[in-house]
Design brief:
Order of helices and strands: EEEH
Number of strands: 3
Strand content: 15-25%
Structural class: alpha+beta
Shape: extended
Radius of gyration: 14 Å
Largest sheet: 3 strands, antiparallel
Helix content: 25-40%
Mean pLDDT: 89
Length: 65
């Protein structure tokens, strides 16, 4: 869930392969390196979550109590 005061990103991350690793560069300088199996599983998880999110109405994030 998005942090209070922060909007969800509209721009996608960009993945590349280097030295046997998958590198993901995301918005706001987010960067992560993963082994291929972890990157593959992450990609599948992201695709499944995106499909589910498309069926849901977008709501405001919950505020901490």
């Amino acid at each position: 869930m998005a942090e209070q005061g922060r909007e969800p990103h509209e721009e996608p991350g960009v993945a590349s392969a280097e030295a046997g690793l998958v590198l993901l560069d995301g918005p706001d300088g987010v960067a992560i390196a993963m082994v291929p199996d972890a990157a593959h599983a992450t990609g599948e998880s992201l695709i499944a979550a995106a499909a589910e999110a498309r069926t849901q109405p977008r709501t405001a994030p919950e505020t901490p109590a």
